[in-house]
Amino acid sequence: MATTTTPPPTKADAAAAFARGLEGIIAGESAICSVEQGKLIYRGYEIHDLAAHATFEQVAFVLLEGHKPSADELKRFTGELIAERALPEPVVNFLLSSGPMLKAGTAVPMDILRTSVSILGNLDKESQDNSAAANLRKAKRLLAKTPTIIGHMQNVIDGKDLIGKKTGGDASLSHAGNLLYLMTGQKPSREFEHVMDVSLILYAEHDFNASTFTSRVIAGTLSDMHGAVTGGIAALKGPLHGGANEMAMEMLKEIMRDVGEKGIGTRAVDDWMQRAFDTKRKLMGFGHRVYKNGDHRAPILHKLGRSLAAGDTKNPGGHAAVKWFELGEQVQKIMLEKKNIHPNVDFPCGLTYFTMGIPVPQYTPIFVASRMSGWCAHVSEQHANNRLIRPLSLYTGPAEMKW
Q1: Chain mean pLDDT for the chain
Q2: Is residue 50 classed as helix, strand or coil in its secondary structure?
Q3: Would strands 33-35 and 45-46 be described as parallel, antiparallel, or unpaired?
Q4: Catalytic positions, written as ranges
């Protein structure tokens, strides 16, 4: 009996399926994450359940090793991360040299982080090994070292000595707590550590978003993990993706400057928003390509951040935090009433990190400290069952001409 093969798709087939930005197009399979209208699931575990009952280290284990860890497995995994926190000397030297670039504005923290990760790839003895075992080891090293890069970078910006230069921080602190410690030199309160930990859980993974898809496209060529996540960092930097949390906070600062504290709760904010609508200004932190009825991560973080602000209205930066949430809530209300657009997780993230006194330019690098777990899981999955990712395009140029 003769067998038949399915012919490859033609340009006509591609034209029939065309969707700008690949919206609604299924571009691959994954066992890592499911993004649904009412749920966000990491390998079978729903995000509300994880945010309420898991730690970031447990979630990272689930993403990278594929199952819920036992007590012994979690102890082993945590120990592996702590042992890999310190940075090699060439990366430290680069960070120490980054001050003038950051001051001049030719680079922002995401650029410095991207280059640091690229340097790590040049120094990793397993960088060219795409085997599952090597990828898992590299993933743990990348996850462990990212907070140290961010902390050392902030020390350079602040003109202070590097904290934990030899150790990568304090071994008694969690991934979230150590990140805050490396940036400030102070051990965070239990409340700050918990809020940061939950934010990292919420940001850890989100299926084929722009940065993860970028990482998978790179991995699909059988390039290495460091190169793939370096591309992911470059994609995450953009204000239409990870940079939205920074831009959302900058927008709120602009509103506050224009209307003043006395304008909160008054018509002044409505007028500001209407001017933004009239000029078709894009307001960051709102809307989502998948979540049409609201991002269910947003209320989790908003509640935690609001509680933190109400409990201590003076953060290390010295500003009254509650007023920012009041402004943010007013902006959310206007967006929902006039545009029927819900906030995404980046909106409360900006407010929450601002309440914690975290410098705005570090919001997206902190995103990387979380999403590194998801990226590395996807790179490993792509390498394990690879097919080159190569879509077609619709040509819109001139018709064929004679030279």
Answers
A1: 91
A2: helix
A3: unpaired
A4: 241, 288, 346
